[in-house]
Write a structure and sequence with these properties.
The complex is a heterodimer of chains A (about 160) and B (about 160). By secondary structure, chain A is α+β, with helices and mostly antiparallel strands. Chain A is built from five helices and five strands. Helix content of chain B is about 65%, strand content about 5%. The chains are: A alpha+beta (about 160), B mainly alpha (about 160). Chain B: It holds the Pfam family DUF4395.
């Protein structure tokens, strides 16, 4: 192949990888709202037993973090979520190790760690965050949770 | 209220996360050279280059990401010029990623040896994308592959 064409293909490869990286980064850590009534499975409230947690869920909401023992960002995310949960009354943080719980990873369709589910006071999934949570997204979701405890039917919007 | 994080003894945070990214940047550059050589028809040079990179991946995968030659370079020459790391990370995910890199590059080498010359360039390109995303965007391939292999049932089977 002509070196100029080969060089162009190499540059195209770099450009493609850059686009891939930008798309990936834009999606990382953003809270994806789970609309109530989307599917029956999503509407079923979760219990601590559903995520193999020995700790109870919070009265106002729970941050369910999924980790493995091969996860560079999970410890940092743990610190972030535990800190935020500690500042809010009735909000719990649960860290679930998927390393030996393939069933849970499959049930919740976890494709990356950390992944965080934001549950309301009833245990229903309100939002989902893939990757290290974006702090302001997370705070917004927590505000909605504590604000919507009197009217559970109000959909969470961003 | 919080539960304890999964932290087995061998995954204690002890690695400057910028080390693996520094190494990934060098690896990505070298993989691009292999892709270029393969495209221009320099099959032997491309095969030798990819075999060399596979050997480096093997070093990282078996000795650990913290003992990789690039990691040594980083500790000796780069880290002293940088601010202290914000946080240390476990060496387990980048070490695992080195194993994934070894698998991909070794596949290219084996296919190249049995006469499938384009496979050398294709495997180098795949490995390049992973190394590039790691270096530039801090994407952790090891973390993601590990979870997907757990989900496939190949790793982390339930403790009997």
């Amino acid at each position: 192949m002509d070196p100029i064409i080969a060089l162009s293909l190499v540059l195209a490869l770099v450009a493609g990888a850059t686009v891939l990286g930008l798309v990936w980064r834009a999606r990382q850590g953003r809270a994806a709202v789970v609309a109530p009534g989307a599917t029956a499975a999503q509407d079923t409230p979760l219990t601590p037993a559903d995520v193999a947690s020995r700790l109870p869920f919070g009265a106002n909401g729970t941050l369910v973090q999924f980790s493995t023992d091969h996860c560079a960002r999970c410890p940092g995310t743990h610190v972030l979520l535990a800190g935020l949960a500690g500042q809010r009354p009735g909000v719990a943080h649960v860290d679930v190790d998927l390393t030996h719980r393939r069933d849970l990873a499959n049930r919740f369709g976890i494709l990356q760690t950390p992944t965080t589910l934001i549950l309301d006071g009833t245990g229903r999934v309100r939002a989902r965050i893939g990757g290290v949570p974006n702090r302001s997204d997370l705070l917004q979701q927590l505000d909605h949770l504590t604000g919507s405890t009197h009217d559970q039917l109000t959909p969470v919007t961003r | 209220m919080t539960s304890s994080p999964p932290s087995p003894a061998d995954t204690r945070p002890d690695l400057d996360p910028r080390g693996p990214r520094f190494g990934a940047a060098i690896t990505a550059g070298l993989l691009l050279v292999v892709v270029f050589l393969s495209l221009t028809g320099a099959s032997v040079a491309a095969l030798v280059g990819l075999a060399g990179l596979a050997a480096l991946f093997a070093w990282g995968a078996f000795a650990g990401a913290g003992r990789h030659p690039y990691s040594m370079l980083f500790k000796r020459f780069v880290r002293p010029r940088l601010n202290p790391p914000v946080a240390l990370e476990s060496a387990a995910p980048p070490t695992f990623a080195q194993g994934v890199g070894l698998l991909v590059t070794l596949t290219g080498v084996v296919l190249g040896l049995v006469g499938v010359a384009p496979a050398v360039g294709v495997c180098a390109a795949i490995a390049f994308v992973a190394a590039f995303l790691n270096a530039v965007f801090d994407y952790c391939l090891g973390c993601q592959m590990y979870l997907l292999l757990v989900r496939a049932g190949l790793l982390g089977r339930p403790v009997a």
